[in-house]
Design brief:
Strand content: under 5%
Subunit structure: Heterooligomer composed of large and small subunits.
Radius of gyration: 20 Å
Organism: Mycolicibacillus parakoreensis
EC number: 3.1.11.6
Keywords: Cytoplasm, Exonuclease, Hydrolase, Nuclease
Family: Belongs to the XseB family.
Shape: elongated
Structural class: mainly alpha
Largest sheet: none
Length: about 90
C-alpha cells in the first residue's frame, strides 16, 4: 500500500499493522507455506513472520477484550448510568 512504512526487507513492520492486516497476511503466509516449493531458509523465514503475525493478532484481540471489559465494568459501577438523565 502506498505511504506505508517498510523495513529494510521491504515489508511493513508487524508493529505497524492493524488486526485485519495481520490476519490477512497470516492467512497468506499459511497458504504459501501449505503450497510448499520454498527452500528451507525461505520457509523458516516465512514461518517466523507468521508466528510474529499470530502474536500481534493476539495482542490486538487482548486489547479489544480489555476495552470491552472496561466499558462493561464502567456500566456496572454506574448501574443508573445515563438513563437517569432521560427522565
Amino acid at each position: 500500500m502506498a505511504g506505508e512504512h517498510t523495513d529494510e526487507t521491504g515489508t511493513t513492520p508487524i508493529s505497524a499493522l492493524g488486526y485485519e492486516q495481520c490476519r490477512d497476511e497470516l492467512i497468506e503466509v499459511v497458504r504459501v507455506l501449505e503450497l510448499g516449493g520454498l527452500s528451507l531458509d525461505e520457509s523458516l523465514t516465512l514461518w517466523e513472520r507468521g508466528e510474529s503475525l499470530a502474536k500481534r493478532c493476539e495482542e490486538h484481540l487482548a486489547g479489544a477484550r480489555k476495552r470491552v471489559a472496561d466499558v462493561l465494568d464502567a456500566e456496572d459501577a454506574d448501574p443508573g448510568g445515563d438513563d437517569d438523565d432521560l427522565q
